[in-house]
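Prompt: Have a read of the protein record below and flag anything odd:
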Amino acid sequence: MKLSKIKEILPSLENVEFQLENGTFVPEHFHVTEVGQITKKFIDCGGVIRSEKVVNFQLWNADDFEHRLKPGKLLNIIQLSEEKLGIEDSEIEVEYQSQTIGKYDLEFNGKYFVLMNKTTACLAQDACGIPSEKEKKNLSELTLNSENSCQPGSGCC
């Protein structure tokens, strides 16, 4: 989800709620402790220089059980970040602490913001030497070529 999309959604909500992809919810007393832009420059395993920008939200649970972040407050934080930091309309990446700091993509299901699991991938599959996945066939679908096969008892095997 891009920053412009969350800014479009927030005014229509009564509460800001985040749900993990597995269905569990981020506790309702979370804080958004950071909103910013992260730029990553890197070289992939094929030697190609790449650049990536994301808008970063960091969610944090405190022992402040009375705290509730309202949509207007989050919208104000986003607008202040745009004004002071010059952040762009990029995809949002959410950091959230579970066993370690996890990074998630963000979606909206019509009621809640959903933290979608991110996965790693090779960006240069044609250059890194990993063979492409072979086509899988069922043995029952293979036709027998009698010229290139051994017959039981023929002594060729």
